[in-house]
Write a structure and sequence with these properties.
Strand 22 and strand 23 form a beta hairpin. The protein has 18 helices and 28 strands. The chain starts with 17 loop residues before the first strand and ends in a 12-residue tail after the last helix. It has about 600 residues and is of the alpha/beta class. The longest helix is centred in the first third of the chain and has 17 residues. Helix 4 packs across helix 10, helix 9 packs across helix 10 and helix 12 packs across helix 14. Among the domains are: about 190 residues, ANL, N-terminal domain (Rossmann fold, 3-Layer(aba) Sandwich), CATH 3.40.50.12780; about 100 residues, GMP Synthetase, Chain A, domain 3. Bound molecules: 5'-O-[(S)-butoxy(hydroxy)phosphoryl]adenosine. The site of 5'-O-[(S)-butoxy(hydroxy)phosphoryl]adenosine has 21 residues, from helix 10, strand 15, strand 22 and strand 23. 5'-O-[(S)-butoxy(hydroxy)phosphoryl]adenosine binds next to helix 10, strand 15, strand 22 and strand 23.
């Protein structure tokens, strides 16, 4: 770190191409430089009822407050699943539905601070469940629908969730016997759908039946700004997934970034393509848009280029928040397809999760007329921190500038800011509103992020240019970003060595034109096993079945031995060099 970069051109090909904005653009944030001088987070607190009442609950600010005013009958949620659901929920509808679910939870003695896992596909029930959980001050633990047994076990055990909302189809993946804390199961069943393999010793309740019996009134459980909001599990380079706990106060950050970076206004139809299993799907799929009172679209089902274009046309989406891999997948389908749809409703596009390459940016700009705006942040930061803004010119390929009221810098190991155009660790001055409150049950892990006093260490490397733009360069650790999703090599390695043919495994991210990186595994086989293409497929399938499809290796290479240090740590740096056909560098710490 701190290595001097002679020319930034070695990281980005086009540092001098600008995306220019018209002078009189009608953005919520009019003047970035001015906002940086005068903006104060304290002033944002005044936008919330709790500022006067001292009674905090984000659900009041998202739903009840709007349902008591002119937005009462405004659509909060458009839900479309091309496989057969097309529904609308007003702010009042969501207030009522979340009150019902809050009452259901209370009936089964679930209370403030209890963790309630939500393991569901993207459906209105997923959103209503999270809102109902938050309404009673319990803490939702969203679990991505693709998770299989091993991934679920880690997260359910660590959070000690006492209740769970899921569907009959997902039920068989949950290892109830190994989860003594899990006492209540709410099942979302289709009409006449049977549920097989029901666990014993767990209360099983029919979600729709219970909802029908529950009262429609429920005052939120009043909390303080420091109380819990949500736990998102995310991966690091070592160990199991970490439970990132956010606090209610995060709403201050969600609200203002939704206004200024997403630029949401009252007349927008906003589409965040992220699943609430990941932080983008809650911070900007639930908390941000509904605290500002926006209409949000949720599309169910898997990615399909046709259906995505159709969604924009059908709902006349105005603001679209998505990810580079999605843009590249659309790009891969060619330019004729978008010509069949009207995309002219769009007025603003944002991107998150991985660097947006200039080709993808230009391609989206060509088909929509709008350049996607980068937003950089992390599960741990809870909110967007480095962005390009709708009213501000930006350099194509740059990650952006710190959000007003926050300070981000490139530092060395001692916490000193490095000179311009020099690579270092991207760090953020502590104290922004949505900063995580804790790593659930792991104080040590939490402290690691703050080991340089006064700073939050992101684990990303980046540099800053003379115009104040921050340019993302890569991860400083072994965390893999594949299709925008964060995968921990250790978790995948642990899953791989469970396979009977595998002796040892080392996992890295391999650069990929569409997915940013793919998960690649180096594997040494047990004695008596012979390498084959069939075995590769079988091993990849095994990880899919036990952990999650997005974490399964897309590429496997067999090798006689996994390179390790004398203390037994896998040298992923060596694996990356092997993969790229590059010299392995200093291997003096490698075991014999
Ligand atoms: C990591 C965090 C919270 C949003 C979803 C990702 C990478 C995120 C960008 C961007 C380049 C980005 C970083 C970061 N990342 N946004 N605009 N440009 N890289 O959250 O899963 O916690 O991952 O995603 O490497 O550290 P996450």
């Amino acid at each position: 770190m701190g290595r001097h970069v002679k020319s930034p051109a070695s990281f980005v090909q086009e540092s001098s191409e600008w995306v220019r904005k018209p002078k009189a653009i009608d953005a919520n944030l009019k003047d970035y430089a001015k906002a940086c001088r005068s903006f104060r987070w304290k002033d944002v607190e005044k936008e919330f009822d709790w500022h006067r009442t001292k009674k905090v609950n984000i659900v009041h600010e998202m739903l009840d407050r709007h349902a008591a005013g002119p937005r009462k009958n405004k659509v909060a949620l458009y839900f479309w699943d091309p496989a057969g659901r097309d529904e609308k929920y007003t702010f009042l509808d969501l207030k009522n539905a979340s009150s019902r679910f809050g009452n259901v939870l209370k009936k089964f003695t679930i209370k403030k601070n209890d963790r309630v896992a939500v393991f569901l596909p993207r459906t209105p029930e997923l959103y209503i469940s999270i809102l109902g959980i938050n309404r009673i001050g319990a803490i939702p633990v969203p679990l991505f629908e693709a998770f299989m047994e091993a991934a679920l076990f880690d997260r359910l055990e660590n959070s000690a969730a006492s209740a769970m909302v899921t569907t009959p189809l997902l039920l068989s993946r949950i290892p109830f016997k190994k989860l003594p804390h899990l006492k209540h199961l709410f099942l979302i069943k289709g009409k006449g759908e049977a549920a097989e393999g029901l666990p014993s010793g767990v209360g099983v309740y029919d979600y729709f039946e219970e909802m029908a019996k529950a009262a429609i009134q429920l005052t939120p459980t009043w909390l303080t700004a420091d109380d819990g909001l949500v736990i998102h599990y995310t991966s690091g380079s070592t160990g199991r997934a970490k439970g990132v706990l956010h606090r209610q106060y995060a709403m201050v950050g969600h609200y203002q970034t939704t206004k200024w970076a997403l630029d949401l206004r009252d007349d927008d139809v906003y589409w965040c393509t992220a699943d609430p299993g990941w932080v983008t799907g809650t911070s900007y799929g639930i908390y941000g848009p509904w605290t500002v009172g926006a209409s949000s679209l949720v599309v169910g089902g898997r990615f399909s280029a046709e259906q995505w274009y159709e969604a924009i046309q059908k709902f006349e989406v105005t603001v679209w928040y998505s990810a580079p891999t999605a843009f590249r997948l659309l790009m891969a389908q060619g330019k004729d397809l978008p010509k069949k749809y009207s995309l002219k409703s769009l007025r603003h596009i944002c991107s998150v999760g991985e660097p947006l390459n200039p080709e993808a940016l230009r391609w989206i700009r060509d088909i929509t007329g709008i350049a996607p705006h980068e937003t950089w942040w992390m599960t741990e930061t809870g909110m967007q921190l480095i962005c390009n803004y709708r009213s501000a010119d930006f350099k194509l390929g740059a990650t952006g500038k710190p959000f007003p009221g926050t300070y981000a810098a490139i530092i060395d190991d001692k916490g000193r800011e490095v000179p311009l155009n020099t690579l270092g660790q991207l760090a953020v001055k502590t104290g922004w509103p949505a900063m995580m409150k804790a790593i659930w049950g792991n104080k040590e892990k939490y402290k690691e992020y703050f080991r340089v006093k006064g700073w939050y260490l992101s684990g990303d490397t980046a540099y800053k240019d003379k115009d104040g733009f921050i340019w993302f360069a890569g991860r400083a650790d072994d965390v893999i970003k594949t299709a925008g999703e964060r995968v921990g090599p250790f978790e995948v390695e642990s899953a791989l060595v469970q396979h009977p043919a595998v002796a040892e495994a080392g996992v890295i991210g391999k650069p990929d034109a569409v997915r940013g990186h793919i998960v690649k595994a180096y594997i040494s086989l047990r004695a008596g096993q012979s390498p084959s293409e069939t075995l590769k497929k079988e091993i990849a399938e095994f990880v899919k079945r036990n952990m999650a499809a997005h974490a399964a290796p897309r590429e496997i290479e067999f090798c006689p031995k996994i390179p390790k240090t004398r203390s037994g740590k896998i040298m992923r740096r060596v694996l990356r060099a092997w993969d790229q056909g590059q010299p392995v560098g200093d291997v003096s710490t490698m075991e014999e």
